[in-house]
Structure formats: structure tokens, C-alpha cells
Write a structure and sequence with these properties.
138 residues, alpha/beta, Cathepsin D, subunit A, domain 1, six-stranded mixed β-barrel, two-stranded parallel sheet, 3 helices, 9 strands, 20% helix
Length: 138
């Protein structure tokens, strides 16, 4: 089954008691791993179940982060649930509290779901509008 997701979209995230909470996630095929904001993980009581630690290397250098297990459900496709691992990070300065990386999007061999991430259509529309306005002015 092919599943299309937006670059950024609302998802359901299960808390430690199994209750669903709405969150905004960024689906990033360029990111190896999922990452969840520490404050959100704490609010949902997910931060107490650390299953490991990972060294994360990014543009700012590297750091060791705790890893937790999370379950994500696509809000518009509640029949699709993704159980995966996410690192805890301070994402308070970023535009989404949850980053969904390739570890969640790439399924194991034999699984029947293939994820496709649509580009940010809103950004492209804004760029086209700006170009059209510049053409009108010239």
C-alpha cells in the first residue's frame, strides 16, 4: 500500500497510557532518525521509558541523546500506526515538536506500506505568488 504524507501534518501520538494526542510532525526523508521535543515527551509521560542512547551528528556538531519508543498514527489514516524509536531533543526553537525520519518511513522487508512525502505545497505556492507579484511590478 502506498501512503502519501505531507511534509508537515497533524498526527496522533500515543501517550504512556495509550491515549492519542494531536501533534504537528515534520516528515523528513533527509533525517536518519525520529526526534521528539523533550517537553512534549515529558507531558505525555514518554520520557521515563528510555531504551538506549544514540550519538546524533548534525550541523551543530554531535551529542548523545536518550532514545524512547513512540507510536505515531496518521490522523487522516487512523488504520496506519507506526511504532518506532525517537531521540529526545530540545526542539522548542523549531517549528514542529516531532520529526519523523527514515527509521519510521522505511519499512522492514516484507511489510506492505510505502511512504511518500509530498513537498511543502504551501511554500511553493507562496514562492509562485511572489514571482507573479514581481512580474506585475516590472
Amino acid at each position: 500500500m502506498d501512503v502519501f504524507v505531507n511534509y508537515k501534518q497533524e498526527i496522533l501520538l500515543k501517550d504512556s497510557g495509550g491515549k492519542n494526542h494531536i501533534a504537528i510532525a515534520k516528515f523528513d526523508t533527509g533525517a536518519d532518525n525520529c526526534s521528539i521535543d523533550e517537553a512534549l515527551a515529558k507531558k505525555l509521560k514518554l520520557d521515563g521509558n528510555i531504551v538506549g542512547e544514540a550519538e546524533i551528528i548534525n550541523a551543530n556538531g554531535s551529542d548523545d541523546r536518550p532514545i524512547i519508543e513512540i507510536e505515531i498514527i496518521l490522523k487522516d489514516r487512523e488504520d496506519i500506526s507506526i511504532k518506532t524509536y525517537a531521540t529526545l531533543a530540545d526542539r522548542s526553537n523549531l517549528d514542529t515538536p516531532l520529526l519523523i525520519g527514515r527509521n519510521a518511513l522505511q519499512q522492514e522487508e516484507g511489510e506492505e506500506i510505502r511512504f511518500f512525502v509530498d513537498p511543502n505545497v504551501e511554500k511553493v505556492a507562496r514562492q509562485l505568488k511572489n514571482i507573479a507579484e514581481q512580474i506585475k511590478k516590472s
